[in-house]
Structures are given as C-alpha cells and as structure tokens.
Design a protein that fits this description.
By secondary structure, the protein is α/β, with parallel strands linked by helices. It has helices at 79-88, 102-111, 134-140, 161-172, 207-221; strands at residues 34-37, 57-58, 65-66, 72-73, 92-97, 113-114, 144-145, 153-156, 179-183, 197-200.
Length: 223
Amino acid sequence: MPKKLSKQPLTGTSPTTLSTLPSILSDGRPLPRVVVFDLDYTLWPFWVDTHVYPPLRPNPARSACTDKVGETFSFYDDVPSVLHGLSRAGVRLGVASRTHAPDLGREMLKLLHVPPASTLLENTALEDGGGSSSSSSKKDNKTRKAVEFFDAGIEIYPSSKIRHFEALGKKTGVPYTEMLFFDDESRNRDTESLGVTMWLVRDGVSWSEVVSGIQEWRRRRGV
C-alpha cells in the first residue's frame, strides 16, 4: 500500500522538553565513523518528489516549509537533536536518497534549520568525539541549516543505493564496515553487500532507532 503524507503538529518553535543524549554515545565503546540517512520517511515523513509542490516558503523559525498548495513539511521530531548528538560524538553524517526530485531535496535541507543544541539537548557535552572543540561548540550554539550537518557527503539522485555508498566511500575514505545506514525500505539492504550495516526504520528516525542501529552495528563487528 502506498504511503500517505504524514501529518505532524507543527508549532514552528523549539521543543518545550529537552532530549537526554543516550549513554551509548559516550560509553567508551566504538561508534560508526559515518552514519548515513535516507531522506523520505526516514528524516522526514513524506516523499519529496510526490508530496511537495514548489516553490517552498519557510516559516519564521525555519523549522518547517510550506509549498504552493499550503502543505507544511518538516523533519521527524527527534531528527534535529539526533543530528546534534551524533555530530558531537564525532560521527560524520551523510545522505543517500534516490528521489526523482534531487534539487527539491537539497533545497529542503537548506531551508530547514536546526536550532542550537542547548535548546534541544539536556547534556550537550560528551567525553569523547569531536564535541569538545571550541569550533564545534560555537557551531552548536547557533541555528544552522540542516544541510551543514552532512559533512560526509550528500548523494541525492535516482540510482541504486550501492552507487550512493560508493560515492560516499570515495569521498570520505572510510571503510564500508565503519558505516551505519538508516533507511525505511528493506530493498536497500543490498548496500550490506559492500559491508555497510543497514538499520530498517519503521516510522522515521528517532533516538530509539539510532540506539538500536548502533547496537546492531556493534553486534556485527563484535565490539
């Protein structure tokens, strides 16, 4: 059955409750060097090439966008804090999407902004990873375009996800076994032929899914 556009309450303001970073990010055990996300029904609850009709207009807080027919679009609730949390843990982030509207997908990542970490997370300091540097702290204290978090690369075009990962691997130089991939379609498990660990998300990225994905990545590596 085709997926329908998910409706989420959008206030355009920062969350009233702060997320607590899961202990798995600072327990001293290995983390994936690169975490890659699909876009549709993984980072956001819609198909950007089917449900969205440009031009897009961001709301004042840039936490959501409205298209020409008045539909409003944003990330799943946990995504902004997940981007901050993984980045602060020293994990590089990437995107692998086969959408047929790549320009619109990139525009959405530029228009949607992520609030400062202090407005999303209770414990914003990590013992390890890259979060302790002053440059990282300065970035975390500012509202940033979502696109700026994906320092491992953004591969958005109709193709096999294997091709996406080959491009990401070439750009980063990181072995596929050091990559964790979040996607909502089981057919994209073909990426595991490269050595990638894929975690299938059922209702978008959340902290619970991220923790489960990291646990599976560790299990497969025996760490």
